[in-house]
Amino acid sequence: MSINVSCPLCGSTTVQLLCHSLSNADGPLIEKIQLFICLKCNANFTDPRIYKKDINQIQQYEVGIYQSKKNRLSRMVDVFLAVLIDQKIKKIASMRKPDVNLLDVGCGKGRFLSRVKKREGWLGLGIEPSQRQAEFGVENYGVKVVTGNLTNPALAGSVFDVVTCWHVLEHIDDPAGFVASINKLLGDDGLLVIEVPNFGSFQAVLGKGKWFHLDTPRHMFHYTKKSIERLLNNSGFYIQKIETYSFDLGTFGMLQTILNVLNISPNLFFRWLKRCKLNEGKVEIISNLILAAILAVPSMVLEFVVSIALNSGGVLRIYAKKKTNPHIV
């Protein structure tokens, strides 16, 4: 059977179907989503794609799990994530000068920026396409956020020492253009930090179409080490370091993926945490919570082992420097 699908990056029609996804972070999907790999440029992509449809893309990030409200464990989660975010900032600081002007692209509700704000000598600005998300960050964390995208005139003439993109690139329909725009905003020797789900991870292989981090069709591209390296090298960056371990999203991705593979209602535990409207009954919800509690520690250990021993954790965290000579590959 012929496949009438072309690669959104290189235009090649030589593509191969990898799997189908019947759910995303919000639960079961009405339509079946396909995941392909381009046999020419090795890009992994979702079809159909949001931007091809008559849909307001921004609205995709203002409903379900993306609603601008606190989750069931907000206070505890804030404290826990603050510690992890501070560790990320400490790592970035070790690679930069003392004073840093930072741009957080796709800053969401502003949690990361709220910790940047507390670091002496650092200036943090966020840019977020969803006005609701941006307003949440301003109102709850007091951070500075520009609504829109990288073409917003408010960024014209700005130069940043560091640009961060935490789980943003997988949502972008033109990743090459997106990364090139970031390159222009960075000063000489500027640092780009990107984190995306690792499509080549153990949990991705385990979950296949049930992998928690697929989140189709909102995730338009699915990155491996090779594909992210190719993208950044071709966009004026050289990679300094790639990590695959994330104590929060990596570990949770493993737990929720295992629950999904066990044929639990898709991403029910995550949706419960996010206070989403649930159609499942009380017995199913309680059973899911009990099973999640039982599997939490084993999932944590498993993710740590595959990340450290096999370098196959659920995320890719890339530290890349801007090339001073863009012609150097």
Short description:
With 329 residues, the protein is of the alpha/beta class. The chain has helices spanning 74-93, 111-116, 131-141, 175-185, 202-207, 225-233, 249-261, 268-273, 282-308; strands at 15-24, 27-38, 44-47, 100-105, 122-128, 145-147, 160-166, 186-197, 221-222, 237-243, 315-322. The chain is built from nine helices and eleven strands.
Architecture overview:
This protein has a domain at 66-245 and 317-322: Vaccinia Virus protein VP39 (Rossmann fold, 3-Layer(aba) Sandwich), CATH 3.40.50. It is built from nine helices and eleven strands. The chain has helices spanning 74-93, 111-116, 131-141, 175-185, 202-207, 225-233, 249-261, 268-273, 282-308, and strands spanning 15-24, 27-38, 44-47, 100-105, 122-128, 145-147, 160-166, 186-197, 221-222, 237-243, 315-322. Strand 4 (100-105), helix 2 (111-116) and strand 5 (122-128) form a beta-alpha-beta unit. The termini are far apart. The model has no long low-confidence stretch (mean pLDDT 88).
Primary descriptors:
single chain, alpha/beta, Rossmann fold, globular
Report how far apart the termini are: 40 Å
**What share of residues is helical?**
25-40%
SSE run: EEEHEHEHEEHEHEHEHHHE
Shape: globular
Overall CATH architecture of one domain: 3-Layer(aba) Sandwich
